[in-house]
Design a protein that fits this description.
heterodimer; A: 112 residues; mainly alpha; 79% helix; B: 167 residues; alpha+beta; 2 domains; three-stranded antiparallel sheet; two-stranded antiparallel sheet; 57% helix
C-alpha cells in the first residue's frame, strides 16, 4: 500500500517537473520563466521526495527525504526572488506585451 | 540563549541527515563531527538566522501554523495547475506585469514567510520588498494594477494567518 501511494506521488511529481520545463521553454521572458520553474519544479520535487519517504518506509531515508523537501520549500522561493531582483537590476526588460511595471520607478529613480 | 537553540536545531538536523545509529550502536565519529559543525554554525551564523524563535514555543502560534500548512498546500497545488494550464495552452493566455502591494506585517520572519508564500502561489512572484512595507510582485495575469485591489487579491489570504503566527 505504501508502495502504491509513494510511486503515485513520484509519478505526479515528475509530471509536474516536466510541465515546469515546458513552461520554462515556452514562456517569453525571464520573469515568466521563473514563475514556471519555481512553482512547478518546487512542488514536483517536493512531491517526489515525499513519495520517496513514503515508499521507502524506513526511518533514515524517510527522515532525509523529508528534510530535503523542507529545505527546497524554504530556499527555492528565496532563490527565485534573488534571480528576479538580480535580472531587473542588470537591466533585463519585461516582455513587450507586459501590461504594467510599477517597479521601474523604484529600481531607477533617475529615469523618471 | 538563541545560540543554544540554533546549536540544538543544527545538531538535530545533522543527526537526522547522517543517522549515526548502525546496528544499535552509535557511531561516535559522526556525532563528534556533528557537534563541532553545529557549534560553528551556531557561533558564526546566529546573526543572520531569524530572531523570532519564540514562535514555536507558543501553542497558539503552533496551532495556527498547523492550520496554515494545508491551506498553503492547497494554494500551491492550485498555482501549479494554473501554471501548467498557461504553459500547455496553445495561445499561452498570459498578461504579465509588475504590481506593487502593501503589507501590514512587521517582523522579518513574517515578511519572509509572506514573500515565499506569494512566490509559490497562483501566478505571483516576489521581485523586491522595501523597508516601509511594500512588495513588488510579478504577476503572470494582472487583474488590477491598483495597490489596494492587488493587495486584496494577492496578500490578504496569507496575511490573516501569518499575523497570527508571527506577530
Amino acid at each position: 500500500m505504501t508502495d502504491i501511494i509513494g510511486f503515485t506521488m513520484i509519478t505526479v511529481g515528475v509530471l509536474f517537473d516536466i510541465f515546469g520545463c515546458i513552461g520554462l521553454v515556452r514562456f517569453p521572458d525571464v520573469y515568466n520563466r521563473l514563475q514556471a520553474s519555481t512553482k512547478c519544479v518546487t512542488l514536483g520535487t517536493v512531491m517526489l521526495l515525499i513519495g520517496v519517504a513514503i515508499a521507502s518506509a524506513s526511518g533514515p531515508t524517510a527522515a532525509k527525504a523529508t528534510i530535503c523537501a523542507v529545505f527546497i520549500l524554504v530556499t527555492s522561493p528565496a532563490a527565485a526572488h534573488a534571480i528576479a531582483k538580480g535580472a531587473y537590476a542588470s537591466g533585463v526588460k519585461l516582455w513587450d506585451n507586459s501590461v504594467v511595471d510599477k517597479y521601474a520607478k523604484q529600481a531607477s529613480p533617475k529615469a523618471e | 540563549m538563541r545560540r543554544v537553540i540554533y546549536f540544538i536545531v543544527s545538531f538535530a538536523i545533522w543527526v537526522l541527515l547522517t543517522w549515526p545509529f548502525v546496528d544499535g550502536r552509535i557511531d561516535l565519529q559522526v556525532v563528534v563531527a556533528g557537534l563541532i559543525a553545529a557549534f560553528l554554525a551556531a557561533i558564526l551564523f546566529h546573526e543572520i538566522l531569524p530572531k523570532e524563535h519564540h514562535v514555536f514555543i507558543s501553542p497558539a502560534r503552533v496551532f495556527w501554523f498547523l492550520i496554515y500548512v494545508p491551506v498553503f498546500f492547497y494554494y500551491v497545488i492550485k498555482a501549479n495547475l494554473d501554471v501548467v494550464y498557461r504553459a500547455l495552452h496553445p495561445k499561452m493566455p498570459i498578461k504579465p506585469g509588475i504590481v506593487k502591494i502593501r503589507t501590514e506585517l512587521k517582523t522579518d520572519s513574517g515578511i519572509t514567510a509572506l514573500a515565499n508564500s506569494i512566490t509559490l502561489t497562483p501566478g505571483t512572484l516576489t521581485v523586491d520588498l522595501t523597508d516601509d512595507g511594500y512588495l513588488y510582485i510579478h504577476w503572470i495575469n494582472v487583474k488590477s494594477d491598483d495597490i489596494d485591489q492587488a493587495t486584496k487579491l494577492i496578500a490578504k489570504r496569507f496575511e490573516w494567518f501569518l499575523k497570527r503566527i508571527f506577530e
